[in-house]
Amino acid sequence: MRNPTGGRWPRFALRRAGRLLGSLWVLVTASFLMIHLVPGDPVRAALGPTAPADLVLAHKQELGLLDPLWRQYADFLSRLLSGDLGVSISSRLPVGETIAHRLPATAQLAVAAFLLSVAVAVPIGVVMAVLTRRGRGRRAELAFTGTSVVVGAIPDFLLGVGLVYLLAVQTHVFPVAGLDGPDSYVLPVLALAIGPAAVLSRIVRVEMLAVMEADYVRTARAKRLTPLRVHVVHALPNAVTASLTIGGLLLSSLVAGTVLVENVFAWPGLGSSIVASIVAKDYPLVQGTVLVYGVGVLLINTLVDVVLALLDPRSAIGES
Amino acid sequence: MRALRRPVGVAGLGLLALVLFVAAFGPVLWGERATVVDTGDLLAGPSAEHWIGTDNLGRDLFARVMVAARLSILLALAATAISLVLGIALGAAPMLVGRRLGRLITSAVNVLVAFPGLLLVLFFAVVFGVGARGAALAVGLAGAPAFARLCHTLVAAVSERDYVAAARIAGVSRVRVLLRHVLPNIAEPLIVNATMAAGGVLLTFAGLSFLGLGVQAPSYDWGKLMQDGLNGIYVHPLAALGPGIAVVLAGLAFNLTGEAFAAAPGRTRPLEAAREPAARTAPVAGTSLSVDGLRVTIPGPAGPIHAVRGVTFTVGDGEAVGVVGESGSGKSVTALAVAGLLEPPIRVDANHLVVAGEDLMAAGAHRRLGTSLAVVFQDPMTSFNPAHRVGPQLAEVSRFHQGMSRKAAFARAVDRLRAVRIGEPGRRARQYPFEFSGGMRQRAMIGMGLMGDPRLIIADEPTTALDVTVQRQVLELLAEVRRDTGAALLLISHDVTVVTDVCDRVLVMYAGRVVEELPAKDLRTLARHPYTRALVAAVPDMETDLNRPLAVIPGLPVDPTQVPSGCAFAPRCPFADDHCRAVAPALVAGVACHKSAEVGR
Ligand code: SF4
């Protein structure tokens, strides 16, 4: 604590990078082991019971399943480092190509939904906190918590179905499915964003309520600033840092949520392809997709920690 | 059953009972209808006979939704049970398998928790294959890390406790300690969380079946029904929405029930409106602070708390007045009230309350106090905003109230930091509060008050949170600031020595009232109130160690929700008689005691 500015950032970077690498290793190893954890013969299961034995053998050879395990692992890692994710069993296309082709649509969906939910949730949470602090506005509080609990409990794919029914089938305002022009983004993004927005606004409210009772907010009031300035300049940054941790979790679950929503809207992203490949037992494709999703989640978590450290310097030196 | 007293709890438990009933008896009651194929009535819309229509084989969908309840709920409960058991095993592992291995498990859990549940579910779905059993295992395993983390935290908290340590020392085996001593103590939060998790699992499972990875035909759960319904959403939307509504209701039933049990806080009753409009009185001339009949009421779960019950005093220009009393005497509330820092629903009434020339009972006075009133709070560690640098926090006063530019205000902040003797003020002003020591922060807080031109400084226990040597420095700084600026001081403290050293005059508070008011130099020798005497007696002599806690005055302070009608000190007073217990003494000639003449002798 004496000279915290000195080695603070390098140490933080080192520690965070270490954690990222550790998690990456777990992810890579788990996706490698996935195919070996499948009970029975995975290739036989993928090709079906009628496939001739030599075809099964050929596939096994191609997947390297006949080598000793350590050798397979080493090959897997070295191929991964050179960006080679293998070849899909069913389509015979390189997995990397398929993913590169489908990833942008998924990423756009997730990012748009995240931005929308933050843009909606933060102002709502702050306003509700100010309105309901210290037991004021009981009715507003009850209505708000009630709505957000119910909305938060509706899974995104169901919201998607509801939205399709209301805004596409009934009124034809937006297209039912597919990715075709900016209009087609509206429903999937809404379906993904509404739930997280409800949860996040509750969290922002609770954090704001806690922060508004803090001593330093009292200090700000003792400076006789306007309430707006007290809330926005002094309370909000502290509430945001606390909400951000959970916001990060929300963002990564939103990434996973795309899987379901993409299937509702026949969105040409990774989500539709991972489900199809699980059903088809196309292991190389599943492996690659799981890796990409996992890496995405890890990068988001790291990004959140970095932003957190920039906003609140204490978090960078803490938790050693 | 506190949860049952809240509408959320009633709604949750009611819904849950309904859902469980349908799950138990659904197949019995509707099983037959659900399988009747009616080829003359395929994909029909809602009608009196088929409430939400029929499917592609003409089977009644409402009946199918009801029948599907059992499988949906059973699978969700099974998956939750897997998560719970595995989570407890992983979470309690550090306690069972020793430090090294335990560490490893904990960090593995931490890595896994970072991945969203659905991703883990998909991973395990690959391993276990498509189908109901595989999906249950997948969802169960995927939920385990979150439970493990929760269980780990709970176990860590419980194993600190004495009885667990005692059992360990007594040589009870680790597994036994876990089963007999630890688990029963963490059961409640675990069950509450499991209930809420079951709601989430239900939704996840519906999602899996919806994707075609969960329950397979001819079996069906709600997710499967939705999947079947989605294809026909153009012609027959209810086929998809009906089972969806069932899923949401069932999920809510679990969520609300868990939530109601998790947080059943006591309600505080709001205060009734002010009783009588306070009689207006005029402030005393030549004072920096003049208050008459100050009353502060705080709403509480057991009725209103009368924290301050009619306090009248003044602080003359340039004068230093101390307020002493035990915690709970209302002295800090008084300080916050006269500083204008109490907010509704706390109610502040007074016949007048004039601070630094501003009438706080009138609107708009607060803003002008920004430069004429300085407030120093008790805990310097928490009184600065951790998200902003120190300099700008000081500069804000000048920018906001004196219209200075960012640069000029910052220069003034640096200058004020120098004035409160902070070394290298230019560098310090660019640091965050956490880089300051406690004493430095308190000095910076005083510096913040000096950004304006204070007529009055209100200091609420300014030295309580500090080391003895630092206490001295801060008190000296306060004295010096008063010498330089001529500001008056209202010093709140539980420490008689501090107050006698710094102040000209002392108010002694007890149970929300001033019980005695006298010159500081007379406090030790000429006190006439039994409480003041006890307070002074608790500090043996002039050479008292400031670190020493106040010696105990026999008996407990008054419960602020039930102030007696007579003298509030009577239960602890050696002089008390029936008259004392019946009639509250008024503050007359500086003392509020029926027997002051007797006591003073
Ligand atoms: S009024 Fe009576 S009970 Fe109260 S302090 Fe005086 S002697 Fe004690």
Task: Provide structural commentary.
The complex is a heterodimer of chains A (320) and B (601). Chain A has helices at 8-37, 42-47, 53-63, 69-81, 95-132, 138-153, 156-170, 183-212, 215-222, 227-264, 270-279, 283-311, 313-317. With 320 residues, chain A is mainly alpha-helical. Helices cover 51% and strands 11% of the residues of chain B. In chain B, the strands form 2 sheets. In chain B, strands 7-8-9-3-10-11 form a 6-stranded mixed sheet, with helices on both faces. In chain B, strands 1, 2, 4, 5 and 6 form a 5-stranded antiparallel sheet that branches. The longest helix of chain B is centred in the first third of the chain and has 38 residues, at 174-211. Chain B starts with 6 loop residues before the first helix and ends with a helix. Classes of the chains: A mainly alpha (320), B alpha/beta (601). At the A-B interface, helix 1, helix 6, helix 7, helix 9 and helix 10 of A face helix 3, helix 4, helix 7, helix 9 and helix 11 of B. Iron/sulfur cluster (SF4) is lined by residues 530, 567, 569-570, 573, 575-576, 580, 585, 593-595 of chain B.
Characteristic key phrases:
A: 320 residues; 13 helices; disordered N terminus; B: alpha/beta; MetI-like fold; five-stranded antiparallel sheet; 11 strands; 11% strand; elongated; binds iron/sulfur cluster
What is the secondary structure topology, with strand pairs?
The complex is a heterodimer of chains A (320) and B (601).
Chain A: H1 8-37, H2 42-47, H3 53-63, H4 69-81, H5 95-132, H6 138-153, H7 156-170, H8 183-212, H9 215-222, H10 227-264, H11 270-279, H12 283-311, H13 313-317
Chain B: H1 7-35, H2 61-96, H3 99-113, H4 117-128, H5 132-159, H6 162-169, H7 174-211, H8 222-230, H9 238-262, E1 287-298, E2 305-316, E3 320-324, H10 331-338, E4 347-349, E5 352-355, E6 358-359, H11 365-372, E7 373-376, H12 380-383, H13 390-401, H14 406-419, H15 425-428, H16 438-449, E8 456-460, H17 468-485, E9 488-493, H18 496-502, E10 505-510, E11 513-519, H19 530-537, H20 578-582, H21 596-600
Parallel strand pairs in B: 3-9, 3-10, 7-8, 8-9
Antiparallel strand pairs in B: 1-2, 1-4, 1-5, 5-6, 10-11
